[in-house]
Amino acid sequence: MLVFSLLAALSSARLGNRLTRVDHVLLVGIANARTPALTDVCRAVSGLASALPIQILWVGMLAVLVFFRRWRHLVVAIVAMALTNAVTWNIAGVVRRPRPLGVNVLGRWEGFAMPSLPIAVFTALLVIALYCLVPHGRLRQYGKAAATVVIGLVGVARVYLAQDNPSDVLVGIVIGVTVPLVAFRLLVPSEVFPVSYRRRRTAHLEITGLRYQAICQALEAQLGVLPVRIEPFGLAGSGGSTPLRVTVKGDPDSFLFCKLYAANHLRSDRWYKLGRTLLYGGLEDEKAFNSVRRLVQYEDYALRVLHSARLPVPTPGGIVEITPEREYLLVMEFFDGAREIGEVTVDDDLIDQGLRIIRRMWEAGLAHRDIKPANLLVRDGRLLVIDSAFAQVRPSPWRQAVDLANMMLVLALRSDPHRVYRRAEQLFTTEEIAEAFAATRGLTMPTQLRRLMREQGRNLHAEFKKLLPYEVQPIAIQRWSWRRVVLMIAVVFAGFLGVFAVSQILTSPLS
Amino acid sequence: MRPALAVSAVTITVLLAGCSVRVGSVSAGVACRNTARVDNSVLVLLAQSVPTAQLIPCIASVPAGWRPAGLHVTNGRASFVVGSDRDGPKALTVALTRTCRITGATAVPSDVAGARRYERPRQVGHGYADDRYYVYTGGCTTYTFDLTGQSRAVPVTEVAQAIRFVQRTEVADLVRRMNDGRVVLDPTPERSPT
């Protein structure tokens, strides 16, 4: 309201002239009190709001946000700064106020005076830095006080040097505070998007504050369970959701395993599928989900299908709605006491169990599509399969073959290929095993599996192929289509645009 | 309710700002006028950019087919561009500075009272490129012609006549009139301690 009133006043010639006279009196008084030493000090202070220091602070802040993967803060920061710049420039074009009259101007300036663009940008930069880099609470309050002092000093310095009129500085400060403050409070509220310096995966949401309470209430209201504690679980092996272990009040207390899905997981799913389409075309159904609800419904359905096919998967517990259309919890049995297959000794019995799981899936017309050590647990000698997010009903023979090969590779990690191959021959034909290793290579193996094989320095894939009675030709996985070509061109074009956009963003907000 | 109000305020601000005239797209702001109107603020800003310049360039009239296309004013330098639909978007750039480099330029009779004129043609084949300098007390105005059309140097006279010079004293009088004599353009000598 203050800005609007001032702008209305300045647009009126009579009121504008009155304000000019008031500013002039102040400036003349300050100019008469100038000393060489004070001028030098003010030049140094005023230099904080010049192009280079602002750019250094700006780029540094963006780098921190990128490093800690705070993408929402990053985008809002860029938009808020651009908006501050645009609003200031445009208001200056309306008001068209000259620089201070009747006094020597001792510093650099550019364009019309009202509002002061360097002050607006400098103020916006400090406000954005506070909301992006300083956690909410007492620390931020101290930061606000410090920023107020710095902005005040820079403003006073610019008025001393007559680079701006006093009212130019005031309006610049109001704009520099208002635009980013509104942007951050509306779009990045601290309660929902806290400033944190833990470098976590973007898939892993913070389970604190309002979200924690909402999960507790939803579990109680929709499933009738009373959560005692909710904590992240198994984060290392998870990239597509936020896995949680919920302790449920009982006698004794029990556990539920939940996967929290939100809009960022939906975006990740889209990017993942886009990446696979670009890398090897539409070999499988790579359609992205349209909503978080559908994403969760699919995994719940897949889990139920696997469970009804008597596969050793968690018992489904249903879907809990946390925020309509935005956040959902997939609930299932928690395998208390289970360990990853990579942490146990793999004997013949476990090998047989793993191979029988694949055989059972083939018979049921199912594929898991993400067989890796993190998704195979062992409890009391029993092999269990988790994470049905990628499961498929009536998969292609190629996909079923890949499942077999991945299972054999995982089992061989903690034993040896000869042993696994001998056991596999009892459940699968030589042709089926050969096809499995012809179909599997590179991208078709989960990242964790490839990484573990690299760490062990073993080319298990090659070792299995040597055990086959004949050489197998790799099955081509590249599929070309017009859609893939157009997508590739679009990605390259977007890449160039992105480089251009980044180069613009990294220039000083004052330029 | 409060978020809705905040969004509305921001939206209105942006819309208002969007309706405004940016410095870069000023149409008549560099016009030579002699009335006590806010629009003369651009002339005042140009005078402030080079405090010693006794002549300030401005656009007296815009010939048909030409249009002002940009304004950039900082301490020590002010420039504005006049574009042509036939001879290019930056057909003429007028720059006001404290001094000019006239090395290699040829002195020619001046058409501006109180200023010496120099010319340095750069290209006369395809299109026409030339630098013209008006050097006067306390300042220098450079005309940079970059005509890309078929007419070569023919439009030069037409557009050059559109640019006029205003005495600094006229601008100072303007400022005094706009502020009822209480504010002046330049500091008086006893008010200029640094």
Topology:
The complex is a heterodimer of chains A (511) and B (194).
Chain A: H1 2-11, H2 13-32, H3 36-46, H4 51-67, H5 71-95, H6 117-133, H7 138-160, H8 166-187, H9 209-223, E1 227-232, E2 242-248, E3 254-261, H10 263-280, H11 292-308, E4 316-323, E5 327-333, E6 339-340, H12 348-364, E7 366-367, E8 376-379, E9 382-385, E10 392-393, H13 397-413, H14 417-424, H15 430-439, H16 447-456, H17 460-467, H18 482-506
Antiparallel strand pairs in A: 1-2, 2-3, 3-5, 4-5, 6-8, 7-10, 8-9
Helix pairs in contact in A: 3-7, 4-6, 5-6, 5-8, 6-7, 6-8, 7-8, 12-13, 12-14, 13-14, 13-15, 13-16
Chain B: H1 2-19, H2 41-49, E1 55-59, E2 66-74, E3 77-84, E4 88-97, E5 106-108, E6 116-123, E7 128-136, E8 139-147, H3 154-160, E9 163-167, H4 168-178
Characterise the protein shown here.
The complex is a heterodimer of chains A (511) and B (194). Chain A is of the alpha+beta class and 511 residues long. In chain A, 57% of the residues lie in helices and 10% in strands. Chain A is built from 18 helices and 10 strands. In chain A, α4 (51-67) runs parallel beside α6 and α5 packs antiparallel against α6. Chain B has 194 residues and is of the alpha+beta class. Chain B is globular. Residues 1-10 and 12-28 of chain B have low confidence and may be disordered.
